[in-house]
Structure formats: C-alpha cells, structure tokens
Amino acid sequence: MRASFYEGAGRFRIGAAEVPKAGHDEALLRVRRVGICGTDLHIFQGHLDHRVPRGGVIGHETLAEIAEAPAASGFRAGERVVVEPLRVCGACRACRTGAAYLCYRLKVLGVDEPGGMQEFWTVATDRLLSVPATLSDDEAAMIEPLAVAAHDVRRAQVSAGDAVVVIGGGPIGALIAMVARQRGARVIVSELNPFRVEMLAKLGIDVVGPGRDLAAFVEEWTGGDGADVVFEVTGNAAAVRAMTGLVRVQGTISMVAIHAEPIPVDLYRFFARELTLHGSRLYARQDWEEALRLAATGAVTLAPLVSRRLPLESLQQGMEEALRGGPVMKVLIDLAP
Ligand SMILES: [Zn+2]
Ligand SMILES: [Zn+2]
Predict the structure, then answer these.
(1) 39 catalytic, yes or no?
(2) Residues 6+ apart with CB under 8 A from 176
C-alpha cells in the first residue's frame, strides 16, 4: 500500500508499506479522505519533532471505510466511519473525571502514533463513529474539526442572544461561528485573508475584514458593553493583545489557538472586568455526536469549506500552499483508489 512518511521539517516521502494487521479489538480501515489542519502545518515545519517520529505517518482528520472489523464490534465491511484519534490510559485523573481527551498520557493518532495518511490503517473499534449516509465523503472528513468547534462552543457556554467574537476565520473559526450561530448567538468573525473573508460572507457569516478597527466595531456592535464570549483562534500575538479589549464585564475568553511561545496578556483587564479565560482543546465523545448531528441535519454546512482535494502524492505541495496563506480554506487528501 501507499503511505506518506514524515522525514523531518519540510519533507514528506511517499513510499510503500505492508498493510497493517488489525489486533483483536481493532478494525482495518481503508482510508478515503484526510484533512490537513493547523496542527499538521506545525508538524510540517518541525515544531512537533518532540512528538512526531521520523518516518511517522500523520493525519488525524480521517474518513475511512471498514475493510475488516471483529463481528462483536457491530461494524460491517464497507461501512463509512470517522476516527476519534485519541488513545487514553483510562486510569489518570483526567480519564477518571470525564476529561479523557486531556489524559496525562494522551496519544494523538496522526501525531504521536500513526495516522491516516496511508491507504490502510488499524484503529481500535471504540474510536470509530458511523457516518450518516446523507453526508458526502468530503463533508464527513470535516467532522473532526466540527467536533473541535462543538467542544469550544459548549465549553464557553455560548447561549442564545450572546454576542460572540471569533478572532480568526480559518476552518475552525468558521465552524465555531456556525455552531455558535446555530445556538442563537450573534456572531462576528475577524479575518484578514481576502479569500476567507469572501468565503465567510458567502456562508452568511458577518466578517470584520482587514483595514477595520475590531475594537471600535465590537464597541459599537454591543452598545458599548463588549462581547459575551471571544474565541482566539489565530495563534498570533496581535490577537492576544486585542482580545482582552473586546470582552464585557465578567465575560469569557476561550483560547482555542496553539501559542507555541509565552506572550504578553493584559492582565489588568482581567482584574478590572473580572474576566474569565479558559483553554479549549480537542473533544469529548459527546462533541463528536453533536458534530455528526449538526452536519447530518444541515444545521452546519461543511461542503463549501473544502477548497480542494489532492492525491496523497501531493501532500507536500498541499502543505506548502496552505502555509503560504493563499486562497485556501480546507485542503483534503483523497486516498480513494
Ligand atoms: Zn486538526
Ligand atoms: Zn488517562
């Protein structure tokens, strides 16, 4: 079978590998689509070399079909599934208290352990969720990022009537906006990339684009109060400088982005307005179920977010294009034969 191997910063190698053998609690999957996301771009740039081994197979946003599964699992050959790409210990404090996705010994498939950028992949059957027939392959490949967004919105307790600001209108920011809107919130997204501004507008999402003063806009938009919830989804220091100025008294900031370096935060604002800041990472099983429900009912539209589909052989090119920040939203790798 074909697979893509990480060979260090800036390099993927396409090569042949043995089809893996499924263990007794595992299914053998035939991979169909794998999304490329911000985490993969960090891997590509070598930022996660302490986690991703040389020769490792990345890919954690996967749609596959069952090639073989144990009869007791209930999965049938040919059935389409998405993969919750986490391996947890089941015994640590996080696992015991309902937050297994924050397991102290968490392994992310496609980062720490082999992922979906290969034609066949073995995964524990308790990590698989069936895909409703109404979803296309492309849409189903977006369930993982939608589960992230569902988790972020749930954790921030967004409710009807809230004024929500999303800083960063990439795939996750766009999905957070759609999930929050679906809960009855008023939402605006701040985004600089003109291609993304246009795409968000087409999805009916209100955008504060380049050349506009976000703080002044939010001030006016909320009648001087400030936003109930601000999501930071960019990973940029400028967004962190801006975020504290956008929130109402006793409002909430949700840190969704990965900030690799410590950066200054206006802590005076936390004191003066009694703000709350929390991190928001990955997802629980209920967020996957919510994502499947939102997608299957059409409450969230996924297909327009897919900018392009590339064969596995073009993974490197896809990464390079995504890094240049050009006219892309979601890029999917298509492994279908
Ligand atoms: Zn991802
Ligand atoms: Zn654990």
Answers:
(1) yes
(2) 149, 152, 153, 166, 231, 233, 256
